[in-house]
Every structure is written in C-alpha cells, then in structure tokens.
Amino acid sequence: MTLRLFLLILVSVSLSALAQLALKLGTNAAAPGRTAGIGGEVGGLIQSPMVLVGLGLYGVGALLWLFVLGRAPLSLAYPFVGIGFILTMLAGALCLNESLSAARIGGTLLIAIGCVLVARSA
Questions:
Q1: What domain range is 79 assigned to?
Q2: What string of pLDDT tens digits covers the 122 residues of the chain?
Q3: Are 21 and 91 in contact (CB under 8 A)?
Q4: Angstrom distance (rounded) from CA 45 to CA 60
Q5: pLDDT at site 24
Q6: What is the pLDDT of residue 75?
Q7: 86: closest CA among 13, 19, 31, 28?
Q8: How far apart are alpha carbons 74 and 76 in whole angstroms?
Q9: 52-81 in b/e burial notation, b at 16+ Cβ within 10 A?
Q10: Between 3-30 and 83-96, two packed helices, what is the crossing angle to 10 degrees?
Q11: What's the confidence (pLDDT) of residue 43?
Q12: What secondary structure does DSSP assign to 51-89, as a single string?
C-alpha cells in the first residue's frame, strides 16, 4: 500500500467520523419532536445546516472511498473503516461530553487491533 493510498483511506474514514458528529449536532439543533408529525421532523432536519454539513462530508468521504476501492483490495481497505469507531468515540467524548466506560474503550481498542491485524496480513 502506498502512502498516498493510506492517507486517502484515513481522510475518508475521518470524514465519515466528522459527518457523524455534524449529524448529531444537527439533529440536536433541529430538536425533532417540536414539530407535529414525521413530515415536520424530516423538514426540520433537512433545514438544519449541520445536518447538511454532515451529509456533505459523507458525500466527499464516499467519493474518496470509491477512489480507494479502485486501487486497493477490498479485504485490505475495508478493515480501516474500524478506525472510524475510534474517531467517532473520541469525537463524542470530546465534543459532546459523552461518557467513556471501560467496556466502550476496550471494545473500541479491540476493533483497532483487529484492523491492524487484518491490514498486516495482506
């Protein structure tokens, strides 16, 4: 794997984690349930700037991921998606003050170790 391809994988996975954070912030700001019915809730979410940012980040990340998949074996590239779990957990803790239990940290580290093992096996 080239350094360029590795960096593209990291950027794509990072964009997905940032997208999760933006979507969470957007759904909190839109405060679903304030409007009547599911149509009102969907309308509120669609108008939330952070939801739109999150969807945009997903789109850019997906385009980069397509580029990665065209240049790397799926069995090598896909395990790196597990890094997104780590980044998303950290974003939740740092930006949203979500608690980190020993079980959550341990499980996330197991995912990371699995990513390393799979990547080294190629």
A1: 3-120
A2: 899 999 999 999 999 999 999 999 998 877 655 555 555 566 667 788 999 999 999 999 999 999 999 999 888 888 888 889 899 999 999 999 999 999 999 999 898 888 778 777 76
A3: yes
A4: 20
A5: 93
A6: 81
A7: 13
A8: 5
A9: ebbeebbeebeebbeebeeebeeebbbbbe
A10: 40
A11: 65
A12: HHHHHHHHHHHHHHHHHHHTTS-HHHHGGGGGHHHHHHH
User: Encoding tokens for residue 26?
Assistant: 């957007």
What residue type is 14 in one-letter code?
S
Domains identified in the chain, total number: 1
The two tokens of residue 22 are 């933006």
Who contacts 110 (Cβ-Cβ below 8 Å, separation ≥6)? none
